[in-house]
Amino acid sequence: MNLHLKDKTVLVLASSAGIGKAAAELFIIEGSRVAISSSNKENLIKAVNEIKSQYGIEPLWEQCDINNPNEIEGLVKHVNNNFGAIDILVNNCGGPATGFFDDLNDEKWELAFEHVLMSAVRFTRLVLPDMKEKNWGRIINITSLSVKQPVDNLILSNSLRSSVTAFAKTLSAQVGKHNITVNNVAPGYTLTGRLYELAVVKAKLKGISHEEVLASMAAEVPLKRLARPDEIASMIVFLASEQAGYITGQTIVVDGGVIKATY
Q: In the predicted model, what is the mean pLDDT of the chain?
């Protein structure tokens, strides 16, 4: 299937590993001009080299702390100066701190607010004018299954990622007339560094090994396995395509059937 993404300019955030990197790679396969970023320069350079080795194409890259408005603006300008206006924005970020309500002070709540919600708001604000001018654009936010089925010790993620889905739903109605779609992809248990970190935390709480925790997570999934990052990335890339042009304001869960709700 031709997704009509050749020569589209794509910015994928938090893309030195995991789902973000997998999405960047699939966009490259589709012939898009891809820019990647991370707050960790060493990991970013490693990802660039891996992508270049595998696909023969070096993505545009720049280190960016998505909690810093100046660095956000600098990254968008860097992409605009090298590739032109951004057609497709994939908002992504690492998860905020784990913990229960009593564990978390104002500082951690404020950091999660900046990291999860305001990063998406700020990047979106910067790319929308060009999308409106071209009368075409795609904004895709990577959230979590927790926006549909909260995870007990992830109250920050549950709360702030849900705010991203509400932001996207509201915005989609405001920009639809410009042929811009805004959607969310909510991954389930996916084999990433973040999942490993969560498994380690849960293992300590339960007094078992992280391998046992990962096995128990897989057992919860009707498909009886954890997702690969590229399986989540496939949905991201599809939502960016021409074929998905009538899908907007949606939160699409890719979780192997974990969510029990029927809606």
A: 95
Question: H/E element holding 116?
Answer: none
Reduce the DSSP state of residue 169 to 3 states and report it. Answer: helix
150, 204: one domain: no
**66-to-69, 113, 122 alpha-carbon distances in Å:** 7, 12, 9
Structure tokens at 213: 């925790």
Rounded Cα gap, residues 134 and 8, in angstroms: 12
Residues of the chain with pLDDT under 70: 263
- Give per-residue pLDDT as tens, 196-211: 787 888 888 889 988 8
DSSP 8-class letter at 59? P
Q: Is residue 91 part of a domain?
A: yes
Range of the domain at 76: 9-189+228-254
Spatial contact of 199 and 210, defined as CB atoms under 8 Å apart: yes
Cα separation, 117 vs 167, in Å, equals 9
For residue 126, the domain's CATH number is: 3.40.50.720
Do 84 and 212 belong together in one domain? no
Is 262 domain-assigned?
A: no
- CA dist 249 and 23 (Å) reads 20
Same domain, 123 and 214: no
Contacts of 108 (CB under 8 A, 6+ apart): 96, 97, 99, 156
Between CA 12 and CA 75 the distance in angstroms is 11
CB 244 within 8 A of CB 236: no
110 and 167 housed in the same domain: yes
